[in-house]
Amino acid sequence: MLRSIAGATMRLLPIAIVLAIWQAAASLRLVDTAFLPAPAGVARALGDLLSGHEIRDNLLVTLFRALAGLVLATVSGVWFGIGMARSWVFNAIVSPLVGATYSLPKTAIVPLLILWFGIGSTMGILAVYLTCLLPIIVQTYHGVRATPAVVIWSAQSMGAGPRKMLWQVFLPHALPDIFTGLRIALGFALVVAISAEMIASTSGIGRLIFMYGESGAYDYMFAAVASVVIAAFLIDRALLRLSARCLRWHESQAVADIGAAV
Amino acid sequence: MSDAAGERTNRLRGHALSILSVGVILIAWEAAARAKLVPDLFLPSVSAVLIALRDGIADGSLPLDLGVSLYRAFAGLLLASFVGVAAGIAMARSTLIRWFLDPFVGLAFPAPKIAFLPIFILWFGIDHLSKIMLVAFSSVFPIIIATYSAAISVNPLLIWSSLSLGSSRPMIMWRVILPACYPRIFAAFRVAVPVALITAFTAEMVAGGGGMGATLMYAQRFFDSPTVFAYIVTMLAVGLAFDKAMLALRDRFPSWRESS
């Protein structure tokens, strides 16, 4: 326990050092605080924002849009991926669409969605959904396609029906890849949700950051950006935890555990 | 042999079906627009989009916008690749640097970098520089992580052997460590190029200042739907072309291919 606290302090020390230098530079007027507000000021603004409604409500709206889009995309993307991997007809029909839109910079569809659905949560969720769909489809497809034929034949010879094959062979085999897709999609989800709010919105953290920037409240702007960074970090960690828990049985986990320790 | 032939017919049938599926979508789109099932504003016909695309290319506005966006994306990417490769190798070779940079990389990697746009505008102004820096900031972390993990797993036997053969440290860096990292750095580039493009386009959409994104937003504000679609189609084609180009590059340089 004590050792882990010491370890965490050691790990976070560089951030503390940089913050201290930054604070010293600001206090000594080495940098213009109009361009780089001192950490103390940003921390005060963050405390102020956290005690009020403004940042909490806007951040929650953004996270809701990002996560709602992500969940919908996961649920439908996995089915698309399995369908593409198991049926060449479905694959032939869908794959040109997936291939063409995979490399589209996804925020490009935001103006289109504004045109169709107006400004608001529907537009935000749809933009996130369409963005997240592709990595999940592609990863699921690869995961299912990579199921060893021997495993499929064994399960079939033991009388597994299509439903059982799906739940006990294909889905579990694709699960590590699905989680890889989910982590890629999570990064996209936050970027697209915030971008959509910066482009046009009446609520959300993206709009709030821009509003502070335009009104010159730079310490508040930095505080709002910091809250986004921390929230994104915590969600990413939570997803890693979840995938480690769901993939406990998988051999890649042994490697991932070492990776986490580095 | 009949199996291979069967495989081939299946693939041909698949291609035919793919072309058919795209064709059906395009025809249904054109028909729906022509029959006014949806207002032009929401869904301009395919032909109107093609005309907007042709006009944009003919009067030079589309190539100009594309040039500006690509300049921003690739200037940022170039910066990110120098900084990212240097930082990744430094982290792999020095425990002190690793200790110092690790929490920043860990914290910044999952962060949605676009949230920093107003800060970058404050620091670097509204024009090219803020967008280039944001692109660099967005695409540097995948490159750092890939380079680091490649450089840390270079077989120490290779380093020891070249040391014992009298190689100097810089020579080991250029001849042993860096080449060993190429496949993973290249894989990171396949991630970083789309990130750079999306960041450049999005920054332009949000902050204006010319480029594909700014014109796209401008067209949307004036409900010029054919131009909106024409620009989206162009972005799609650019994204696809770069991905194909990178795959072709990888085939051209086999040492860039990951062996695993």
CATH class of the largest domain in chain A, named Mainly Alpha
H/E series of chain B: HHHHHHHHHH
* CATH fold-level topology of the largest domain in chain A: MetI-like fold
Calculate Rg of chain B over CA atoms.
23 Å
Distance N to C terminus of chain A? 19 Å
User: Major sheet of chain A, described briefly?
Assistant: none
Number of helices of chain B: 10
Query: What share of residues of chain A is helical?
Result: over 70%
Secondary-structure content class of chain A: mainly alpha
Shape of chain A: globular
CATH superfamily of the largest domain in chain B: MetI-like
- The beta-strand count of chain B equals 0
Known CATH architecture of the largest domain in chain A? Orthogonal Bundle
Number of domains of chain B: 2
**Major sheet details of chain B:** none
Strand content of chain A: under 5%
Poorly predicted tracts of residues of chain B: none
